[in-house]
Amino acid sequence: MKNCPKCGQTFLDEYLFCLSDGTPLVAQASPPEELTVIRKPKREGMKTSTVLLFILAGVLTLALGATIGVLYVFWPRQTAVEQVQRNGASERPAANQRQSQPTVTPEPTVQPERTPTPKKEDSPPPQRPSPPAPTDAGDPGPTRISFRAGRVSETLTGAVSNFRTYLLYAKDGQTLTASIRSDDDCATFDGGSTRISYPTGAGDNPIPLVNNCDGQAQFTLTVSIR
């Protein structure tokens, strides 16, 4: 069947145009097909198994409840009776023992006589020890080094307790070299070295010495200039 979209009349499929106004006819839309859903038949065996499971669970629950009830009713009474019998049996021997034990009278103890201790003679208080004499003498102040005529080096000996300084007069741009020798390297230059060398400035150039050991340290100092 076909319909006229303008006037809405219905015509057979062999017509192409509307007989009233000449509008081209349009075929009617076919109705949607209905889907048929087929359900699978339920298994009767599953229903039977489910029912049996429920019945079995109910029977087990009832049996468990009955067992708990029996234990609750009978178990505490038997335990209480046994506990009372045990307590009575333990108390009777204790009472018999108390009655059978004779009373013991403690014997008086004899206290020993105290022997007077002789008084110690008063001894004089110990004398305070005198302080030890100082072993290190004080270090002298800055000491000037003078070269003998025509010489560019000089060797001298001395001692240092803590710290002392030697002075050498030189011109600007000269090179001062010094080395020191002592037992166990106790006496060294400031910084821990036993040899120093540096360019001089105009005037006095210091040569500091330090003592790294306990007590006064003897040393031999050699100084040269170029």
What's this model, at a glance?
It contains one helix and eleven strands; from the N terminus they run E-E-E-H-E-E-E-E-E-E-E-E.
Question: In terms of topology, how is this protein built?
Answer:
Elements: E1 2-3, E2 10-11, E3 26-27, H1 44-100, E4 143-145, E5 153-160, E6 163-170, E7 175-182, E8 187-189, E9 195-199, E10 203-211, E11 217-225
Parallel strand pairs: 4-6
Antiparallel strand pairs: 1-2, 1-3, 5-11, 6-10, 7-9, 7-11, 8-10
Number of helices: 1
* Quaternary status: single chain
Q: Give the CA-based shape.
A: flat
N→C terminal distance? 134 Å
Average pLDDT confidence is: 78
Catalogue the unreliable spans.
126-136
Order of helices and strands: EEEHEEEEEEEE
Strand content: 25-35%
Helix content estimate: 25-40%
Could you tell me the CATH topology label of the domain at 143-225: Jelly Rolls
Radius of gyration: 64 Å
So what's the CATH class of the domain at 143-225? Mainly Beta
CATH architecture of the domain at 143-225: Sandwich
* Structural class computed from helices and strand pairing: alpha+beta
Strands side by side in the biggest sheet = 4-6-10-8
How many E strands? Answer: 11
